[in-house]
Amino acid sequence: MIDSLEVEARDGTWTFTLNRPDKLNALNAALVERVLNAVEQANAQKARLLVFRGAGKSFCAGFDLSEIDAQSEGDLVLRFIRIEMLLQAIAKSSAPTLALVHGKVFGAGVDLFSVCRHRIAAPGSVFRMPGLKFGLVLGTRRFASVVGAEKARQILEETNAFTAEEALEMHLAHKLTSPDEWEWITASVREKTQALDDVARDDLYRVLSSGQSETDLSNLVRSAARPGLKERLRSYLRTGSRAA
């Protein structure tokens, strides 16, 4: 059986590769738990750099909706909570975090990208955040802190896709590079971030942190727990989308 997450730990650099290429690396419950556990393990072992990638044609097509008929509303709420806990584990890491994305970067995939401190996209990547179509507030404040409140409102309200070039323009992506340059990018990020010792870097991340993790979680739970989540997800699926 193919592992849904490939983890490579070498010289302090932990690389996490989402490995459900047939599903465009959409996040099912098992994959979220695998990534969360791996990130917590890396943090416990004082990793020097966390890198997130996706196998196949896309980085991550978001929340996997393919099994919602077999799940209760409580199951679905818990799945979204666990995604938020994963995002918080990445955000709170004392290690630099790097996302290398390509292809489709949708929904929770954008949240994974946004929470990383260094964000690289391949030309041709496509971004979309449709979560509010089914009333879900996930990663909203973090996204707004990166691109600005007004730009975030426009994107989240209209739920339209945007290009890698637009992501660069709004500072969601820091640079556009082809995947054949990512090994060099990873080495460069690691070298630059080691200019500070561990204590100074921890202090920097702590000072810059918003300290709003509890508010983020409560906002998510409030939106996800509103009655009718499952039907809203089904309605979204009827538009022809498979992941969000």
UniProtKB/TrEMBL annotation:
Gene3D superfamilies: 2-enoyl-CoA Hydratase, Chain A, domain 1 (3.90.226.10). CDD domains: crotonase-like (cd06558). It comes from the Bacteria. InterPro entries: ClpP/crotonase-like_dom_sf (IPR029045), Enoyl-CoA_hydra/iso (IPR001753), Enoyl-CoA_Hydratase/Isomerase (IPR051683). Belongs to the enoyl-CoA hydratase/isomerase family. This is Enoyl-CoA hydratase/isomerase family protein. The lineage of its organism: Bacteria, Pseudomonadati, Pseudomonadota, Betaproteobacteria, Burkholderiales. Pfam families: ECH_1 (PF00378). Transmembrane segments: none annotated.
